[in-house]
Automatic annotation (TrEMBL):
PROSITE patterns: IG_LIKE. InterPro entries: Ig-like_dom, Ig-like_dom_sf, Ig-like_fold, Ig_Fc_receptor, Ig_sub, Ig_sub2. The chain crosses the membrane at residues 611-635. The keyword GTP-binding does not apply. This is Ig-like domain-containing protein. The keyword Methyltransferase does not apply. GO terms for cellular component: external side of plasma membrane. Pfam families: Ig_3. It comes from Silurus meridionalis. Keywords: Disulfide bond, Membrane, Signal, Transmembrane, Transmembrane helix. One of its GO terms (biological process) is immune response. GO terms for molecular function: transmembrane signaling receptor activity. Residues 8-102, 118-206, 209-303, 315-399, 404-489 form the Ig-like domain.
Length: 648
């Protein structure tokens, strides 16, 4: 038998309430929300969820028909007086007509009965009904005979009844929950196979509240100042007491861990405030607090860390920074060392960036000296020296910035005639005004090193670079030997900190009598892909000391050996591509230059189309005599056959 999906679902209600004391009366009422009045009702308790039953039947539970269900056929089922055995979860169902048509099962309604002398007790450890997420919990069923025939059962807001052992560890009648979650809020009780029950217990699992730590007046202090750490909990309870901790780093041969260490005088801050007065160097460190309340105690999470940095006049050790500044740029190198009068090596450089770690674990160590080969912004933080006994140096706040960029521009233009004047201008994209500038030409790296370096070129400092230290470098008059690719760089401070090298700016100078000529074969500046090209440096003495160089926007300045084949002072290219578009020139080791030549390599172009059409026409014309002869023979053959047919 079954029911049609379109039949109504009954509604089950409880009066006066779900929670009752043994001896009370309670009425379960079932009604169907349709216009028919001839419904009769049956009553069930919900047996434990069974995954096999749920799979084959359209219910989340296995209903158990009550033996005296018929007395509630009119729609009301009364328990008076209620007893412990009535604890459970109930549903009802309606039926009418012959043959019977059934509704679905109603909503569930639990009844929780508490008695004075239950046959078994549900023991909860820790013994409280309010818990936090991640707490551990033990539930056990204990009776006088120490029977093991009891099962811990659970009913949650999801309206499902479980045997507890189905989803957590169990040992006989004891259940262990290692880490509670909020969805484990519910009612728990012990039940025997014969239907006896313990008193039910309503357990609530709350999200663990957060402790919030603040510092007044500030985190950075001078030895002798006063500072107060204040801890508060983000909930409405007022009975919290507080404990105070420092963050401690432990290390072993092949592991590390960051833990909290209870302060020896933590109890004096139990009310929520922990004051250090006067503050001393050994108070430098990272602090956390935690709230607790109740018996047994329940705890908040540890607060987020709050550092205290204390400066003193005579620290037992000094943190030496090289280069000696607190502002650095990415990719700078840095050395940190702990130095005291006795040259002790038991000091450790420590770092705080929001989470604490021993410095040596992520860079090379030489006794008490730490070397960082290439800084990153992640190295921004506070550094200090600390001994195993807790002595400390003054802390140092080190900041690692993105390296500012120098920007190079040319006025009036990049292409000039020998004798013209031009100005290179360099500026830095930050708010500082105390930059001085150096000037360089870009020299190609040898091919082996090219792809392994930060820049695409080797910068060569100009011999008269200092005259452009203010940011402008003027060439007047310009000469052939000024042809080349230029970059600039900013520096400031002592010891100096540097920007990165600027963008490249080429200068192309043409003169009437260059010491060498760049000979191009075929002799044109416009070429197509897949063409071959020969570039030669020719002077009157037929010297072979010249090198063909190229500048492109994508690759910068390169020697022929990096993109062609070299024979003496000749550079050969077998197959051109559009990436070969650029400026070419000859240059000697002494810096003499030819006039530069701008060569452009085009892809497939319509300019080539006429040649292709001519080739097609030529092919057709060549084939025409054969086609004409074939046509004449076919015509003669056709006429001869026609004449033969007429004679017949």
């Amino acid at each position: 038998m079954g029911f049609r999906s379109e039949t109504p679902k009954p509604v089950l209600s409880v009066s006066p309430q779900n929670w009752l004391t043994e001896g009370d009366s309670v009425t379960l009422s079932c009604e169907v929300t349709d216009s028919y009045t001839d419904w009769t009702f049956s009553w069930y308790t919900v047996d434990r969820q069974n995954q096999f039953y749920s799979y084959f039947f359209d219910e989340e539970f296995k209903p158990k028909h009550l033996s005296d269900s018929s007395r509630g056929s009119g729609g009301s089922y009364t328990l008076s007086p209620v007893a412990l055995k009535h604890t459970g979860v109930y549903v009802c169902r309606g039926e009418r007509e012959e043959p019977a048509i059934y509704t679905g099962y109603s909503n569930e309604q639990p009844l929780w009965i508490t008695g004075e002398s239950p046959p078994v007790s549900l023991i909860i450890s820790p013994n409280r009904t309010q818990h936090f997420t991640d707490d551990s919990l033990t539930l056990s069923c204990e009776d006088q005979s120490n029977s093991t025939g009891w099962t811990v059962r659970q009913y949650t807001d999801s309206k499902e009844v479980f045997d507890f052992f189905l989803w957590y560890l169990f040992t006989e009648s004891t259940m262990e929950v290692n880490s509670l979650s909020s969805d484990q809020t519910g009612v728990y009780w012990c039940e025997s196979e014969s239907g006896e029950n313990s008193n039910p217990v309503n357990l609530t699992v709350h999200e663990r509240p957060q402790a919030v730590l603040s510092v007044s007046p500030q985190n950075w202090l001078t030895e002798g100042d006063s500072v107060t750490l204040s801890c508060a909990v983000t909930d409405s309870s007022t009975d919290w007491t507080f404990s105070w901790h420092t963050v401690v780093h432990y290390r072993g041969f092949d592991y590390q861990s960051v833990e909290v260490k209870l302060l020896s005088d933590s109890s004096r801050g139990s009310g929520g405030s922990y004051t250090l007065s006067p503050a001393a160097l050994h108070h430098t460190g990272v602090y956390k607090c935690r709230g607790e309340r109740g018996e047994p105690a329940s705890h908040t999470e540890y607060s987020k860390p709050q550092p205290l940095w204390i400066y003193g006049e005579s620290p037992p050790v000094s943190l030496i920074i090289s280069p000696n500044r607190t502002q650095h740029f990415i990719e700078d190198s840095l050395s940190l060392s702990c130095e005291d009068q006795s040259k002790s090596t038991v000091w450790t450089v420590r770092q705080y960036t929001g989470s604490e770690t021993d410095f040596f674990l992520w860079d090379s160590v030489a006794e008490s000296t730490i070397e960082v080969n290439s800084l990153s912004t992640a190295h921004t933080g506070v550094y200090w020296c600390e001994s195993e006994s807790g002595e400390k140096s003054n802390p140092v706040n080190i900041t690692v910035h993105e390296r500012p960029q120098a920007v190079l521009s040319v006025s009036p233009q990049n292409w000039l005639t020998e004798g013209d004047s031009l100005t290179l201008s360099c500026e830095v994209t930050d708010s500082s005004t105390d930059w001085t500038f150096s000037w360089h030409t870009a020299v190609p790296y040898v091919q082996f090193h090219f792809n392994f370096l930060a820049e695409d070129f080797k910068p060569k400092l100009l011999s008269d670079s200092s005259r452009g230290s203010g940011g402008s470098y003027t060439l007047s008059p310009s000469a052939l030997h000024h042809t080349g690719v230029y970059v600039c760089r900013g520096e400031r401070g002592e010891p100096a900190i540097y920007t990165g090298y600027s963008n490249e700016q080429p200068l192309w100078i043409s003169g009437e009598s260059p010491p060498v000529s760049l000979i191009i074969s075929p002799s044109r500046t416009q070429h197509f892909t897949h063409d071959s090209l020969s570039l030669s440096c020719e002077d009157q003495s037929n010297s072979t000391g010249w090198t063909v160089r190229r500048y492109t926007d994508s690759e910068g300045v390169l020697d022929c050996s990096q993109w062609g084949s070299v024979t003496g002072s000749t550079c050969n290219i077998s197959f051109l591509s559009t990436s070969y578009t650029g400026v070419y020139w000859c240059e000697s080791e002494s810096g003499e230059n030819s006039n530069p030549v701008n060569i452009t390599v085009h892809g497939s172009s319509c300019v080539e189309a006429p040649f292709s059409v001519l080739m097609i026409i030529s092919s057709v014309v060549t084939a025409s005599p054969y086609l004409l002869t074939t046509i004449i023979l076919l015509v003669k053959c056709y006429r001869a056959r026609a004449e033969t047919d007429e004679e017949n």
